[in-house]
Amino acid sequence: MINIAIDGYSSCGKSTIAKALAKALHYHYIDTGAMYRAIALFAVEQNFVNTDNSINQEALNHSLDHIQIDFEFNSDSGKSEVFLNGRPVEALIRNIKIAEIASKISQLRAVRNKLQHVQKILGTKKGVVMDGRDIGTVVMPQAELKIFMTADSLIRAHRRLLELKSQGKESTIEEVLDNQTKRDYEDTHRAEDPLVMAPDALLLDNSKLTPDEQLSIVLQWVKEKSVQHIYPSNS
CA 84, CA 62: separation in Å to the nearest integer? Predict the structure, then answer.
């Protein structure tokens, strides 16, 4: 078994490929983006988010010790779902508003310290697939396989719009593109662990790839890295 770190821009299908890999390899999948979204939801519910979407950092920092985030497998949906302080919140965190706040939340050092601590512990085990923005560079720099995902911006926006509509949430391509542009800028320009491609990561541009095609490519990478892990002299 090896560890797989997947980083990249929003709406590139990181979670899609991560879940598919975990299922195919019988690995454990960790959705770090959902962890930040859960804290964003907590901040909203506790009125720590101001009308301009800025965060009351002092209040949130004082509450971090009272936040517990877990993943539990839902046998009905066949998916791992997020729990916030023992409450299922998967359906509450998959919207544009929470995504915008999560992007701001992720810039806070205290929040990153809390979540990275948990993520790094999980990353000490083998057979982990973890996706996010700083996995290959900060959380699991020791991962045997690092992947950096990208795709054409308009294709990404259309994918996100279809995802929202499938969840019964109304939006427009203009709203999705605007949110995406803001998130990309914040992710790549934040002072705390910005989104960058690790020097030893493999680039996966899935603009024109089907889910099956990209899974096939990545499974081949897993095979190659697994051989190198067992026989280091071959690397």
Answer: 17
How is residue 101 written in tokens?
A: 């706040």
Beta strands in the chain (DSSP E): 4-8, 28-31, 69-74, 79-84, 87-88, 128-132, 145-150, 202-205
pLDDT score at 165:
87
- What six digits make up the tokens of 2? 């090896």
| Residue 110 neighbours by CB distance under 10 Å | 14
User: Which residues fall within 8 angstroms of residue 3, CB to CB, at 6 or more apart?
Assistant: 123, 125, 126, 127, 128, 129, 130, 140, 142, 143, 144, 145
Pairing of strands 87-88, 128-132: unpaired
Contact call for residues 124 and 207 (beta carbons, < 8 A)? no
Q: Tell me, yes or no, whether 169 lies in a domain.
A: yes
The 3-state DSSP class for residue 73 equals strand
Q: What is the pTM of this model?
A: 0.82
Q: Please report whether residue 69 resides in a domain.
A: yes
pLDDT score recorded for residue 235 = 46
- The answer as to whether 130 is a domain residue is yes
Write a three-state SS string for 108-135. Answer: CHHHHHHHHHHHHHHCCCCCEEEEECCH
What is the mean pLDDT of the segment spanning 100-118?
Answer: 91
95: alpha, beta or left? (left if phi > 0; alpha if psi -120 to 50): beta
CA atoms within 13 A on the CB side of 124: 5
Task: Flag whether 233 is in a domain.
Answer: no
Segment 195-227, tens digit of pLDDT: 999 999 999 999 999 999 999 999 999 999 987
Distance CA 94, CA 62 (A): 25
